[in-house]
Structures are given as structure tokens and as C-alpha cells.
Amino acid sequence: MAKLYFHYSTMNAGKSTLLLQAAHNYRERGMETYLLTAQLDDRAGAGRIASRIGIGEPADTFDASTDLFERVRARMDRGPVACVFLDEAQFLSRAQVWQLARAVDDLGVPVMCYGLRVDFRGELFPGSAALLALADEMREVRTICHCGKKATMVVRRGPDGRAMRDGAQVQIGGNKTYVSLCRRHWREEIEGLRLP
């Protein structure tokens, strides 16, 4: 039975690596996959999902105007698809998450979404909020804080090296400015104080 999955984490946890490995596993068994990524994230080149460890695959792109149900249906019209993989799911709109849910329900294809849960301010991305509400299954991809605890938050450092409290929710290509932290150390960074 097809399901809508949401694999979420903070920055640099290996979400894209897991997506690429899972897609490879399908193809290795002779099953076709369909890969999608956000058009605005072109760090690895336009229409490419890539991992920090050096692996990558071409993918179709989506933007705010893309009807993902129609995109998946059009791809399935060209041949069988065993699974849809979507990277940078935090950039989906609520309507697009519903479109993916409809693809699962009406087309019978599993959809695996990978993305960030919260931004540097500790707020949910719209796509992530919708996926948390609608996904059939959610899986946390874990990474660790410098203290060894599970990292669930991320700070964005400004030019002065301090944690930013304000700014645009989306900043593409700023991986070196982001640091994944546990909630306690995120609070220390954001509040600018040392907790006991």
C-alpha cells in the first residue's frame, strides 16, 4: 500500500544521501524512480540532488506554481514508477503536500519527502508543517550537536559569527553559516547567554 513519508531533520544530517541511497536501491532491483527537487536550490547545479559526500543524481524541479499531482501523473503516463523521491520538502506549499497525498491515494505510488523541519528561528517551514500533519509515516534523520546530544535545531551565523535572530527564512547556499545544535545550545546561541 502506497504511503506519504516525511524524512526530516536539521541541516547536514544526511537527508539527501539517504534519498539517493533509497532511490539507488529501487533501481538496483529494476524498479524505476522519479526524483524531484526544489528549483530554487541549485547548489549542486540546476535539477540535481547531491550529497555532501559527493554523490548526486539528476532530478526534475518544482517551484511554487508546480502542480505536483499532475507532474507525477505525467511521469507515470510515460512508464511505471515504483516510488517518487522529493528533496528539499520544506519548500513545498500546503497545497503541494495535498497534491502529493493525492498522488499516493489516487495513483497508488509511494512518495518519500526529505527536508528540514524547522528554520534557524525555530519555526516550522510551511511544507514541513503540512507534511507533519498529512504524512502517513514520519522518520527523523538524526545528527548530533557538538555536546553529543541529538541536534534538533539550527542557527544561522551572521558575518560577525553570532547567531542571527531575524532574516529571510530561506537562504540558499549558506551551508557554512548554519550549525546544527540541540535545543539547549540553540537557546544559548539565540539568547546570548550561558545556561547552567
TrEMBL record:
Superkingdom of the organism of origin: Bacteria
Binding site for ATP: 9-16, 87-90
Compartments in which it is found: Cytoplasm
Annotated active site: 88
Catalytic activity: thymidine + ATP = dTMP + ADP + H(+)
Family matches, as Gene3D superfamilies: 3.30.60.20, P-loop containing nucleotide triphosphate hydrolases (3.40.50.300)
Principal location: cytoplasm
Molecular function terms, GO-annotated: thymidine kinase activity
InterPro entries for this protein: P-loop_NTPase (IPR027417), Thymidine_kinase (IPR001267)
Coiled coil: none
Keyword ATP-binding among UniProt keywords: yes
Keywords in alphabetical order: ATP-binding, Cytoplasm, DNA synthesis, Kinase, Metal-binding, Nucleotide-binding, Transferase, Zinc
Listed EC numbers: 2.7.1.21
Transmembrane segments: none
UniProt-annotated binding residues for Zn(2+): 145, 147, 182, 185
Record family assignment: Belongs to the thymidine kinase family.
Quaternary state and interactors: Homotetramer.
Entry protein name: Thymidine kinase
Native organism: Albidovulum sediminicola
